[in-house]
Design a protein that fits this description.
The protein contains eleven helices and twelve strands. By secondary structure, the chain is α/β, with parallel strands linked by helices. It has one domain: TIM Barrel (Alpha-Beta Barrel), CATH 3.20.20.370. Helix 7 links the parallel strand 7 and strand 8. The structure holds zinc ion.
């Protein structure tokens, strides 16, 4: 109560977008770099703009060298087997960006998560991080959130030769490390623990081959897929349909895939419904790493939507040569 009054006096306030009942990030040590206003979403940020790829954006410096993952952590992680009675679920949001676009930031989604105190995990492409440095820093700094990676420029890793995947991951990890370095160097930012690099990776389109899956694990990254698809890039799927589809498929240990880069058509509208309904069913929210720490990962040796082979059509929709021909659309993740 005292904190609320103090904020009101300072004129910061806790509006509809940043309720005091949820995250108090703006008042916490890591959040002192930003006021509540600076954290809140702004109109127009959701828009995705075409742009010409400029190689000058590629981060320089030494590669980030992480130890390869051991057996038991290798493969495509689809969810987590939890001890009986644990009802945790991980909401995840991809922030895809291909080479020829400046992808969006959907602040309403982040504001809803903060307002409701809901933990979540974001998977930004490396280029997205560099196109949205301030927003990227805010997400990484927020103790409610975990930030993984989604490749450098969202190429189809099922078609990508493993050596090209390695080069892509090198750029991606350098971008991630650069954002974290800049954040940790800020005088206003005093994190309890400063993570220097991400530990999680999500395949663009959710596609991989044996070589690129190994390349991700060899780069020291857990490959995080999902077991619940929101379908939110589809205009045909309403907010109510997203709520119904997600809530009817979530089970303890589930990982749900959604979008917060402007490609989720009704995601912002659906999210409060999804959160309320899952809470009504006794679920609590965890980041992916927290979820993994509570049980045993469910691991597959290939990457798929809901059953092996069901995303083969993406290879025609998203061939490698399309990468520099325009933004990807469609319903892929
Ligand atoms: Zn994506």
């Amino acid at each position: 109560m005292r904190g609320t009054m103090k904020l009101a006096i300072l004129g910061i306030g806790c509006g509809a977008l940043l309720a005091c009942a949820g995250s108090s990030f703006a008042r916490e040590p890591g959040g002192q770099c930003w006021s509540a206003e600076a954290l809140a979403g702004r109109p127009g940020e959701k828009a995705i703009h075409r742009s010409t790829y400029d190689p000058a954006i590629e981060p320089a410096g030494e590669d980030v060298a992480l130890p390869p993952l051991p057996a038991g952590q290798r493969g495509s992680i689809r969810g987590v087997r939890l001890p009986k009675g644990e009802r945790l679920v991980a909401l995840t949001f991809d922030l895809c960006s291909n080479a020829n676009e400046i992808s969006g930031y959907e602040g309403g989604i982040v504001d809803t998560l903060r307002g409701a105190g809901v933990k979540a995990t974001f998977f930004p492409s490396g280029k997205w991080l560099l196109d949205h440095k301030e927003r990227a820093g805010q997400l990484i700094a927020d103790p409610l959130f975990e930030v993984g990676s989604h490749s450098w420029t969202h190429r189809n890793f099922r078609l990508l030769p493993p050596q090209d995947a390695g080069a892509d991951l090198a750029l991606d990890l350098k971008a991630d490390a650069a954002i974290r370095r800049a954040l940790n160097a800020k005088a206003c930012y005093r994190p309890a623990t400063a993570q220097e690099h991400t530990a999680l990776f999500r395949f663009p389109f959710g596609t991989c081959n044996a070589g690129t899956l190994a390349a991700v694990n060899d780069a020291g990254l857990l490959a995080i897929q999902w077991d619940v698809v929101s379908g939110d890039p589809s205009k045909a799927i309403s907010a109510e349909a997203i709520r119904q589809g997600v809530v009817s498929h979530v089970k303890p240990g589930s990982i749900v895939v959604m979008h917060a880069n402007g490609r989720g058509v009704h995601t912002a509208e659906a999210l409060p419904l999804v959160i309320a309904d899952l809470r009504k069913h006794g679920f609590e929210f965890a980041t992916v790493s927290e979820l993994l720490s509570k049980g045993e990962p469910v691991i597959a040796d290939s990457c798929y939507e809901l059953k092996p082979g069901d995303n083969a059509r993406y290879d025609k929709l998203f061939p490698l040569e399309r990468d520099h021909a325009g933004p990807h659309g469609g319903i892929a993740n």
